[in-house]
Amino acid sequence: MLHDLLRPLGISVAAGLAFGLAVSVGHASRAVAGRPPAPNVVFIMADDVGLGDVGFYHQARTGDGALAPTPNLDALLRDGMRFSDAHSSTALCSPTRYCAMSGNLNHRSYAPWGVWGSFRATPFKDTDATLGRVAKQAGLATGFVGKWHLGGDFLDAEGAKVYRGQDRGDGVLPVDVRRWVGGGPASVGFDYSFAMPCGIQGPLYTAYENGAWAPFSADSKIIHLNDETAIDPHFVSDKGPGMGDSHWDPRRAGPMLSGKARGFITEQAGAGKPFFLCYWSPMVHIPHDPPDTFDGVKIRGQTPSHHMDMILDLDQQVGRIVRALKDAGVYDNTLIIFSSDNGGLQAGQSLRAGHDSSNGYRGFKNQPYEGGHRVPFLAVWPGKVAPGSESDQPVAVHDVVMTMASALGVGLEDHQAMDAIDLVPILTGVAGYENPREEFLLQGGSGHQLIYRKGDWKLIIDTNNPETQHAVQGLFNLTQHPLEPESANVMNDPAHAARLKQMTERYFEIRTSGARSTPPMSASGL
User: For residue 522, is it within any domain?
Assistant: First the structure.
């Protein structure tokens, strides 16, 4: 009876039971009288952080103390639920960001393999249910702070049209980067933003507050940033030179961004407004330039590598955000989700010291094996999520959109969040709940690998020409061989030929047809 009542409204049973009903009409929603106040939501997504980069997981695997301690992340793990089978949408950061923002897998965008540079068009459609739009629909104040990496609109040097040229090069580019005129966080529902178009790796080597250039110093100028003009040549990443702030300094990024996040929380809570903070940290991406200290804690040189120092920086950012929530008195009514945009880095100095970002799994960032996309994923929601709990359900960062919609009582259309599931029933321990994800589609990195899971089995399809080549790279039983040793690759075993053929055909059936890979929100719940 209850399911039949909720289905036409596009609301899961779990959301209805826990939070009351909300009616969705087009892009507006209203709360039913008596519905509990909407929770605040904070979604933190780190950059290039694998399971082994969180102290809890390193210690659980090795029995040794973490070389890069993460006391603030460990505290969140104790306060909430951790997921042991959680994944980034792809093994690369930029395409995962599209998926996380929209609940759609990357093949639904106009650039299914690409990374969005600063001057490419943003991939979102007006009909997409983005994180910001869902939160606004529920009446929350919305803020985005951190790394964007999803393109944007900047005018050319004459101010005549939007520039769509290269974002890097050896000379000054014909573009005006003093104003981010469109295609940024505001275009997907965020009231406030303090964003770096490509994080700390650039280019652009700039920051923007509500679309206006936010200079690093009072005497900053927009220049062509290269090894000669930068404060330190190391601040120009391997992505190369490009337009930037003359005082660009990635050592300041963590304290700067988390300070803006803290300010947003304090302002909204002080005004009594429910809010959504989307905080996408650029740590621990290269260049690895940690600050000397952070809130009185020594950072630089405190671990065997600057890569691991950046983990300390990230943990301090998380701690600052959590403290802001507690100081504002809103921690107990806030859903906090933490994850990463892809697996950890293959950092030689860290590995030699005994720090494995992949925590024993095969592969690293940009690779289709588990280490490339299996990531930390935790959720804290006091009074709703049992402290210290764990789930082995397969989840991904693109599930956050539908989960937020469910938690906030916002209905989604069937064409929205087409690859997401609602995690609220898992988080709140709804008895008898069965995960509706029967098949799991993910994507590798710049090698154009495709990933398809069905039950215990994982298929890796290797294709540098997605239109014509369907070469198989691996077929693994993850229950029997979760670490994917090559000796367990049965793609050439005749006994599994039928399985391999069926899984390959099914993957491309979904991809080419544009069909949903998960049930729509109107069909979720018990």
Answer: no
